[in-house]
Amino acid sequence: MASSRGEFSSRFGFIMAAAGSAVGLGNIWGFPTQAASNGGAAFLLVYLFLAFSLAYPALMAELIIGRHAHANAVNALRQISPGPVSKRIGATTGIAGFIVASLILSFYAIVAGWMMAHCLASLAHLAGMEDLASWLTEFSFSRNIVFMLIFMGLTIGIISEGVQAGIERWSSRLMPMLLITLVVLTGYVFTLDGASDGLRVYLLPDFERALSPKLIISALGAAFFSLSLGVGTMLIYGSYVSDKENLPTLGGMVTLVDISIAVLAGFLVLPAMYVALHNGVEIFNEAGALISEDTLIFTVLPALFDTMGVAGVVVSLTFFFLMSIAALTSSISMLEVPVAYTIEEHGVTRKKAVLIIGTLIAGVSTVILLNFGQLFGLVIAVTTRYSQPLLGFMLCVYAGWIWHRDSLLQELRKGNAGAEHSLFWKIWPGYVRVVCPLIILAIFAQSLLG
After folding, report:
1. TM segments (predicted)?
2. In this structure, are residues 29 and 323 in contact, taking their beta carbons and an 8 Å threshold?
3. Does 2-449 carry CATH code 3.30.450.40?
4. What ranges do the domains of the chain cover?
5. 64-123, pLDDT tens digit by residue?
6. Is 113 left (phi over 0), alpha (psi -120 to 50) or beta?
7. Which residues of 275-415 form beta strands (DSSP E)?
8. Interior CA angle at 24 toward 21 and 26, to 5°?
9. What angle do CA 144, 148, 151 make, to 5 degrees?
10. Element (H, E) at 214
11. Which distant-in-sequence residues (6+ apart) come within 8 Å of 44 by Cβ?
């Protein structure tokens, strides 16, 4: 069954694809700004602990369910359900997952378009085309829709080629490119005046602040969302994994790559912020809070690049190229969730399914752009703050409570004959039953209460 619907051809291909799904704008944009707003090193320590204690177990729930079923989320949750009621709830959860993934992609494509536009603006500056550069960096409907459509076109083109020729092939190219770009850019920022101040903030923890409930809840959310959990992206990627693979090991590698890139992004963004401060760019208000945390990338960093002359244009080009790659590796996994469902449940060809769904999502993005002030923040809140935690909660419930324990163990034995003797099996089943759902509910409660 797996072979007829596509399968990753290598462990490296899967790790690059799954890590690419997880490594998105949240890792390179969200994590560093949250760290800067929550004590730097204190946030980093708590995040590292929670990423392995929450994100990894929840990731494994999706991977194991997906590999067992070799099917989309709707069918997969039906397969592990013992009765008609749990089957209906599972199918509803799967449908909600691909709807939420599609809505996330609808606003993600807009933001990714901004990244691409800023990248090209740097080239326009180098070519002396200042009018074009201004259009590319100013907020306008024409700029926004053009680059949203370009980004969606790239995503559609990759997904149309299937698992190996599309997702795996391009993830295996883009992820190494992303990592190399991130390392080179970070190394350059380290050479600039002011960078050492940012490094001190990032690496010297205030242990009292590490116990702050606000910081812990923020780190919980960052750890959960950094792995792209809840909407079925990891479940669908797990469904393309060979039965011969050891899933706990694969999941650990994906988690490690994802966290490493988020941490490395902190080494880039926090020092860059303090370089900007050193160059006269204000980054904190009178209360000591970050100015425009949500738009840091489009305010503080461009202001920094402007102070650096020609070198700043090159750094800006490299940085926004990096962000564009991060966005693309995530978007292909989001689009694959509804595409896989449509292909398998309705018998539509891949190219037709990708074109129809991609066009519909681009249509939703257009509606958001036409009503930006009312819809953009609302869609983000509904999907990431409320829906994603609840869907993650349901996936943990199905892995921990609904799916029969013996069947789950048989799935793990496919890639590890002695799975029942492993430390993973001794800890994970109980952990995903109790600890993960409680932590995810805490994240959801924090979203409700603010």
Report:
1. 12-29, 41-59, 95-124, 144-163, 175-195, 215-238, 250-277, 308-332, 353-380, 386-404, 430-449
2. yes
3. no
4. 2-449
5. 999 999 999 999 999 999 999 999 999 999 999 999 999 999 999 999 999 999 999 999
6. alpha
7. none
8. 130
9. 145
10. helix 213-226
11. 35, 202, 203, 205, 263, 266
